[in-house]
Amino acid sequence: MSSPSSAASPPPPPPAEQRRPDPVRFGIMGCASIARKLARAMLLAPGAAVAAVGSRSEAKARAFAEETGLLLRHAPRLHGSYEALLADPGVDAVYLPLPTSLHVRWATAAAAAGKHVLLEKPTALCAADLDAILAACDAAGVQFMDATMWMHHPRTAKMRELVADEATTGDVRVLHYYRMIALSPLDIPPYNLLPVDVINSLFSFRANEEFLQNDIRVKPDLDALGALGDAGWYSIRAILWAVDYELPKTVIALRNPVRNQAGVLLACGATLYWADGKIATFNCSFLTNLTMDMTIVGTNGTLHVTDFVIPYEEKSAAFNMASKSKFAELHIGWDPLPSKHVVSTDLPQEALMVQEFSRAITLQVSILKAQCSGLAGGRAAMIGSGRGSRVRVTRRQGN
Question: Which CATH number fits domain 20-149: 3.90.1530.10, 3.60.15.10, 3.40.50.720, 3.40.640.10?
Fold first, then answer.
């Protein structure tokens, strides 16, 4: 006869490889406006949690946590200095939205503290500064990602698929990126290449007087790159994305950039040239109407998207694709008509970015655990999705 205590025992826990990994614990360093958007993204993203907020005072950190809902949802620890945030052992990764002039100091400090780095754009004031940040992350064995959100939208992957399809798009040789600023005919160089393959991009916003006088993006000691760093970042990134990150051979600035009294760029542009004949032109500005337009024209097709940086809607984003287009009879229309592609997503692109960064960190931790347990040895490496994540782990020799 069985005793009352001999009821069926609970099932054994699932094997370790089947258990859901612990969320990546983020610390937010600074309470900039863009950090509010990322705080929301971290509330939405699976596999992420906000463990701490650091600011120049604990009162500012508390006000930020209350306003964003973090205090109620994640109850983060509040730090009154950036140093205290980096010393927090309960933080795995740091999101850093500070002014660009502070990126080298605090991104390298975060890496030295063993924290993975999600760095707001522009990542640095010059290539040497970015090299220093990347070197610090490599030396510490931590992950690095720049916070370019549109790269993580599933629409971007779908557009990449079609741009890479020679039958659909063809060859891309001439690329133009404009941010809605008037150009005289003399500003536009002649293009004699055949076939003429083009990418046009428009992404601008008209800043108000308060922005133009007081925003950190117009202050030489905070964000000295001005419109080039804030707006031009997207255009340049899109150009490099379109050519699969092949660097140009020559870059020539367009004439007559607009600067404020402190010398910070409010509008500027440049043309990029590649050895094989590709050409790209971009222009960026704080002075014209909000527009986000990108057109990629190849020998066989044209891709057109009108909200490439921030989609009109969070849950879906569209683009048009025309392939092998020609005039209809009597030139009264087109044949065939462009097709519209709509890509849906359950999460906004900034949450997808946080999710992918968290996955890269989790994968790195899993590889390290496997190495330590003798399940893997030597050097392990993983290149992530086409949107930029990477994991690199090197097993240290000796003790």
Answer: 3.40.50.720
